């Protein structure tokens, strides 16, 4: 099958979604498909321009130029999105008979507006949408007023655009429910992102890294990754204070970055002696950092369920660590935790979470079982091999 992938960022960009699309392209190519990628010519955190054409591991990469408007600016993102989509549509028109299937991601914003035009240019093509996050919902939840008004203007066009899609791929059941409210009628599948680090066995903690992050605490809890508008560190800070008050020997480390990281940590005081901070870890250091913790912290604000699914969840399981989740009980992460016994959900009372931390800290055999179980569930349900096998079955159905 001749497959076209369309996504804003791609190899060699280190951003997680770009890496996932690159690894999916590799898997499709290894399975015998011919893969072409339409992407942008800039990295997400660099001014560097990438070459317009490249062949990478058998995959044809076609990069379309865009201005260097900041992705951190709402106006900049809009201009980048519009320019790229117009250029991709022109590129597709010239090669519209070369492909059997087109897979489109959710970056840049409003990418779904291309669906009707892609369908018009080739009515026989199989059109697949892989939704990592939802627009305009993400804008409507938390954006300046003028962006919300603009997003609201596009919302009536979403059902019309989605009805052109043959297969709608989400990354969680709560996201699927939001997508189905548009009445798209497409074939549905849940294909989650996988972790970038997938050790072949449950790794042990590096004593030096553990001491750097958690000191000599009996049990270490780690938040690693982005802190944005969809995340809230407040419940974890409150839990850390309650652990200190009750004499539970636990250390919390926030190794994050993002537009809300410093804002949310401004509430820390000198009394928060069991809370530590750490900077960004390179990919080479990431596995050792993740393995240094006993429990990983995952956060999702209420109202964001089904709009985004934190990829930290899959990274924690891949490294064989149970998770403590602060977020809506109806979210897919909370359900996976409950169904597969992967950790604990933090509620307002916090008693279950305190018991969870105390038990894993006082019973090494329980902690060891939790590690092995998390790693096994990841390999069976969420690993690159498991998910890409489902991708291949989805593509083979027609």
TrEMBL record:
Protein name: Glycosyltransferase family 4 protein
Record's keyword terms, sorted: Transferase
InterPro entries (UniProt xref): Glyco_trans_4-like_N (IPR028098)
GO molecular function: glycosyltransferase activity
Keyword Acetylation: no
Keyword Transferase: yes
Alphabetical list of Pfam families matching this protein: Glyco_trans_1_4 (PF13692), Glyco_trans_4_4 (PF13579)
Residues in Glycosyltransferase subfamily 4-like N-terminal domain copies: 20-185
């Amino acid at each position: 099958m001749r497959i076209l992938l369309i996504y804003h960022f791609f190899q060699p960009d280190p951003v997680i979604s770009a890496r996932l699309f690159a690894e999916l392209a590799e898997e499709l190519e290894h399975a015998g498909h011919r893969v072409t990628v339409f992407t942008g010519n800039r990295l997400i955190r660099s001014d560097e321009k990438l070459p317009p054409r490249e062949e990478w591991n058998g995959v044809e990469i076609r990069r379309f130029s865009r201005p260097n408007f900041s992705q951190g600016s709402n106006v900049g993102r809009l201009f980048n999105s519009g320019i790229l989509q117009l250029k991709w549509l022109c590129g597709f028109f010239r090669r519209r008979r070369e492909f059997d299937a087109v897979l489109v991601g959710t970056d840049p914003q409003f990418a779904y507006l291309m669906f009707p035009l892609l369908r018009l240019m080739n009515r026989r093509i199989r059109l697949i949408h892989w939704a990592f996050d939802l627009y305009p919902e993400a804008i409507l939840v938390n954006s300046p007023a003028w962006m919300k008004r603009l997003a609201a203007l596009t919302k009536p066009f979403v059902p019309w655009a989605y009805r052109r899609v043959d297969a709608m791929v989400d990354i969680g059941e709560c996201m699927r429910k939001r997508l189905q409210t548009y009445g798209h009628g497409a074939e549905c599948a849940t294909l989650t992102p996988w972790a970038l680090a997938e050790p072949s066995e449950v790794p042990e903690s590096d004593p030096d890294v553990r001491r750097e992050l958690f000191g000599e605490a009996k049990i270490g809890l780690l938040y690693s990754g982005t802190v944005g508008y969809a995340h809230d560190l407040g419940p974890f800070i409150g839990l850390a204070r309650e652990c200190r008050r009750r004499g539970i020997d636990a250390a919390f480390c926030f190794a994050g970055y993002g537009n809300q990281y410093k804002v949310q940590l401004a509430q820390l005081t000198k009394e928060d002696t069991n809370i530590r901070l750490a900077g960004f870890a390179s990919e080479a250091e990431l596995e050792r950092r993740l393995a240094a913790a006993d429990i990983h912290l995952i956060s999702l604000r209420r109202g964001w369920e089904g709009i985004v699914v934190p990829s930290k969840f899959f990274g924690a399981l891949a490294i064989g660590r149970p998770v403590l989740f602060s977020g809506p009980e109806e979210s897919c992460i909370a359900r996976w935790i409950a169904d597969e016994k992967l950790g604990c959900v933090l509620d307002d009372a916090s008693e279950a979470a305190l018991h969870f931390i105390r038990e894993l800290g006082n019973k090494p055999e329980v902690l060891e079982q939790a590690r092995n179980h998390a790693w096994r569930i990841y390999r069976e349900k969420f690993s690159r091999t498991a998910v890409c096998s489902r991708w291949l079955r989805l593509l083979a159905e027609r």
